[in-house]
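Service request form, structural biology core

Requester: graduate student, group of Dr. S.
Request type: structure prediction, single chain
Budget code: on file
Notes: please return the result as structure tokens.

Sequence provided:
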Amino acid sequence: MGKNGEIYYESAQCKTQLKAPNEEIIALLDMAVNAQTGLVSAPYVLARGRYYDNAGEYRKAFKDYIVYDSLMNNRATHDFYYTKFKCETKIRQYQLALNDIAHAIVLNRTEPTYYAEMASLQLQLNQLEDAVRTTNLALQLTDQYSDLYIIKGIALCELKDASKKSEGIEALQKAQTLGDERAANLIAKYKK
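Core staff response, request fulfilled:
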């Protein structure tokens, strides 16, 4: 079929629609990637990475995401860096994940989900002050995103500072007024 990755890629798409075995689809995606070298193979590398990601083979997906990012000279879209971030969190590459979600934020500063994801991971890693700073940046964009108030409230309450704790309770109460059902239990927990 020549040196055109598109043919193999389209064949893989057809096999996916026909619910063919994974091995057949991966074989076609491999041929699409290997049909050409350099930048022209980038879309096929990304497609294979996404296929691995959706199949739960996160380490293989991560490898393809790294190759794709290199082929794109670290100039991919914010969506790509968000996808890569999610993959990295699944394989516990937390510092890389924080770098990539920060990159996504730089490319799209108006998406509050990216800030919430970053703050959530910072909270998980016990980077409490960073989580508070990240939520504060996002709250400048929107004050209607209850997850931001939940993350900020937990981070402030976990700082073990009485003045910060009351501010944390206020953030949780704001989440409650926005209809977040998790807030009531968290308020009760931190008021003890």
